[in-house]
Specification:
This protein is α/β, with parallel strands linked by helices. The protein has 33 helices and 19 strands.
Length: about 800
């Protein structure tokens, strides 16, 4: 058996190497099929049209089974080929078509035929896309705000929603036919004298079409495996293909009976959700919990070994990595490294509060650590009674240097969910979604975070300038005056409060326009099918079908805001080291000249900095952020009153790589940051300013109103590899983590274990570092495919020791 496992591992290594070295390209098959269906069904209700398009895609798209794989299913006609979703947006495709291979990062390589096909496809979609509809629903003022870059919702406008985990536990329990039976039973009660039921009928019809499409593609793989088994000359591979045939054949008609079938069905659903929708962060929930009954039963009956389970898991991770996505360049800069954010969550607590770590938790952790791919995005739920040996093993995996796993804290997340009205059993079953944001799998609506990005520093600079935005020259909301005329620091805080009140409302106005466009034009039917209580209500998620509905936008530049407030309060109003006029002048001139640099050094060296456990600045960060939180909590999502519990907004700091492009459109700031340079990432300190060590960072972050930032409190820390190499230091880090989570009630932390010299060498010699994975934000990416500015941002982060 050991020899067999070694063979499998060699094959897995070959699969990984092939995938990493495969250049990203695009696939036009889905786009062609969807375009044809839309042309032929222009007067058909949108939801039915989308179901037909998905069905046709699943029954006609190219499918293949690579020689080494045991888990099957492909998103497009070639590995790492991103499908095109023209119904969302085409203007960026037309504009950038000849630039995809010239990008400084995340390049895509197209043939001339691909380009010609795309030109023809895009011609039909001009003026008909979800992007066009979203802009049409915005007021003129909100359109200007969005295009100014102060608020950006491009991800929604060009890619839709996702940011969700479906009910895999139920899918594995009742299978596809179980859902079909449930839909038929529910639809039989419709009364067509009621307009609501006429709409429900369209939903149920679309669900049937979509589920049958899912069955068809699974059966296609069963047939393909059978055909390949008859032609292969390798006896070992013949047996594997016959096994794949039996697995897929059963899944197309019944429920999974063993671990192999359960993990294969999980992948099929995960895959097809990403063929249906262009949204990313389609996550897998608590895999160690819903797959565990199959896993432990197979181990106990002797039909599965733990080693082979790990082989299947590694196959699964390779298949996740084979999925790809192309974004506009401006959107790509917010998601550097082509991430799909397919999050897998392990550990945490059971519904009765016991430690949920089981044998499968260990196997998932081990398999992810051995593959060291960027997918899945692995998260561990921490709590006070977690198996401490498991935590130590997590640190051993983190030591490998690829940024996983990340930790989320049950001690703050579960109470926050309970306070929002989430049931206890559901709250205990939360999982990480995408980066670090959280939701209850199969019961939560879209966009638990990521609705739109609000650039805090653009707002703050406008507050100092009577409401005028320096970048666009527009005054979207009249301020209370100019900074040079303020008589006290209280006026600075009041100016910020008035501006952030306006922009909090503006984010909701923009979100509402986008939501309406998505709801009416790009319904995700299969995804809605697998989320409670969409079938009962006969509604898609966007219409209010989910049990819970809470969302957040993302606020960028939190540390810069706090540091800027501290610099102004201390150096201008308290110590009189810098005059208001001089500060205004050097900011306008980007600290040009000797005088400008002299003032910049004062701002950098003499003002308190967030991340050093300094109450002076930490209190200012909390106060300023709380103003925004107080405002955003006043608003409801578009599902309010339509069924779900909640329908509220909360804050979120999971800004992915948005700190780099967000900083590119911000002029010089009072914290000493120069124009165009990155803002601080997540809730992490500004690069190089956290000089008091990692525990001081923990203390600063814990002072934020974390129980109200349920969209995620993302903290990145960078440690040198030598720091945790010894067992003594791992033990020390484990102790620090426990204090952060159980004592300080920290929300999240993740680690980059890579030294500056390695990153610099990788910049100079990328071919020698193709396998180098780094933590970018709430996700990991291969370092060498990042753009230079994203690489530089990671290199600049403070490298701590413990």
């Amino acid at each position: 058996m050991r020899t067999t496992i070694e063979k499998y591992n060699k094959r897995l290594a070959a699969m990984k190497n092939k995938l990493i070295r495969t250049k990203s390209t695009i696939c036009t098959e889905r786009a062609k099929i969807y375009t044809k269906v839309y042309k032929e069904n222009e007067h058909t209700p949108s939801i039915i049209k989308r179901a037909i398009a998905l069905y046709d895609t699943l029954t006609k798209m190219t499918i293949f089974i690579d020689d080494n794989e045991l888990i099957v299913g492909n998103q497009s006609s070639k590995p790492r080929a991103a499908p095109i979703f023209p119904e969302y947006a085409v203007t960026w495709i037309i504009k950038e078509l000849d630039e995809f291979d010239k990008r400084p990062g995340d390049a895509f390589y197209l043939t001339q035929k691909d380009k010609n096909d795309l030109k023809e496809i895009c011609e039909y979609w001009k003026g008909k896309t979800m992007l066009d509809k979203g802009y049409a629903y915005m007021t003129k003022e909100m359109y200007k705000v969005h295009e100014s870059g102060i608020i950006r919702a491009e991800g929604n406008l060009t890619s839709g929603d996702a940011h969700i985990a479906v009910n895999y536990e139920k899918i594995l329990k009742i299978g596809i036919n179980g859902y079909l039976s449930y839909v038929n039973k529910t639809a039989a009660r419709l009364d067509f004298t009621k307009i609501e039921d006429v709409k429900r009928k369209q939903f149920y019809d679309s669900v049937r079409i979509s589920l049958n499409g899912l069955k068809k593609i699974i059966k296609r793989y069963a047939d393909l495996a059978k055909d390949k088994a008859t032609t292969t000359k390798c006896h070992e591979r013949k047996c594997e293909l016959e096994k794949i045939h039996r697995v897929c054949n059963n899944l197309s008609e019944s429920t999974p009976t063993n671990f192999y079938e359960a993990i294969q069905l999980t992948y099929f659903v995960q895959l097809v959700l990403q063929i249906e929708s262009n949204g990313h962060s389609v996550s897998l929930g608590r895999m160690d919990q819903y797959l565990y009954p199959f896993y432990i039963n197979d181990l106990n009956t002797g039909i599965l070994s733990d080693d082979f389970a790990i082989v299947l898991l590694k196959n699964f991770w390779c298949k996740l990595y084979s999925v790809n996505k192309i974004r506009s360049w401006s959107h790509t800069r917010y998601s550097a490294g082509s991430p799909l954010y397919q999050n897998v969550t392990i550990a945490g607590q059971t519904k009765d509060g016991k430690d949920a770590v089981n044998e499968l938790s260990w196997s998932i952790l081990r398999s992810v650590g051995e593959m060291q791919l960027t997918q899945p995005n692995l998260s561990v739920r921490y709590h006070k009674n977690i198996d401490k040996k498991f935590v130590r093993e997590c640190l051993s995996v983190i030591e490998k240097g690829f940024g996983m796993p990340a930790f989320n804290n049950d001690e703050i997340v579960i109470p926050s969910l309970l306070k929002l009205g989430v049931g206890r059993n559901d709250a205990c079953n939360y999982s990480a979604i995408g980066c670090i944001e959280i939701a209850v799998p199969g019961k939560w609506g879209y966009r638990c975070t990521g609705m739109s990005f609000l650039n805090f520093m653009r707002v703050f600079l406008a507050a100092l300038n009577d409401g005028k935005d320096a970048r666009s020259g527009e005054t979207f909301h009249k301020g209370i005056g100019y900074f040079v005329d303020f008589k006290s620091f209280d006026q600075v805080m009041e100016a910020w409060k008035q501006q952030v009140k306006y922009y909090a409302k503006a984010t909701v106005m923009i979100d509402t326009a986008v939501d309406l466009a998505i709801e009416e034009n790009v319904q995700d039917i299969l995804c809605s099918t697998f989320v409670d209580n969409c079938i009962e209500r006969g509604k898609t998620i966007k219409e209010g079908g989910s049990k819970y509905d809470f969302v957040s936008g993302l606020q960028v530049g939190i540390a810069n805001l706090g540091n800027s407030l501290a610099a102004i309060k201390k150096l201008v109003f308290e110590d009189n080291k810098i005059s208001k006029a001089n500060l205004t002048k050097v900011l306008d001139n980007d600290f040009a000249g000797m005088e400008g640099e002299k003032i910049r050094q004062k701002l950098l060296n003499f003002a308190p900095k967030y991340g050093n456990d300094d109450d002076y600045v930490d209190a200012l960060v909390k106060e300023a952020y709380t103003y925004f939180i107080d405002e955003i909590e006043k608003y409801h999502t578009t599902r309010y009153g339509r069924g779900p519990i909640g329908c509220k907004y909360y804050a979120g700091t999971s800004s992915i790589s948005a700190n780099v492009p967000s900083g590119a459109v911000v002029t010089a700031t009072p914290d000493g940051r120069k124009a165009g340079t990155p803002l601080a990432e997540g809730c992490s300190p500004s690069s190089g300013t956290d000089i008091a060590g990692p525990t001081a960072v923990f203390k600063s972050v814990s002072k934020l109103p974390t129980d109200r930032i349920t969209g995620g409190v993302l903290l990145n820390q960078k440690l040198s590899p030598a720091t945790i190499r010894s067992e003594a230091n791992k033990k020390k880090l484990a102790s620090i983590l426990d204090t952060f989570f159980t004592g300080l009630k920290g929300w999240h932390v993740q680690y980059n274990i890579v030294d500056r010299e390695t990153l610099l060498r990788a910049q100079k010699n990328p071919e020698q570092y193709r396998n180098l994975v780094v933590r970018v934000a709430g996700y990991s990416a291969f370092f060498t495919i990042l753009s230079p500015d994203a690489q530089d941002d990671i290199i600049a982060r403070t490298e701590h020791s413990i």
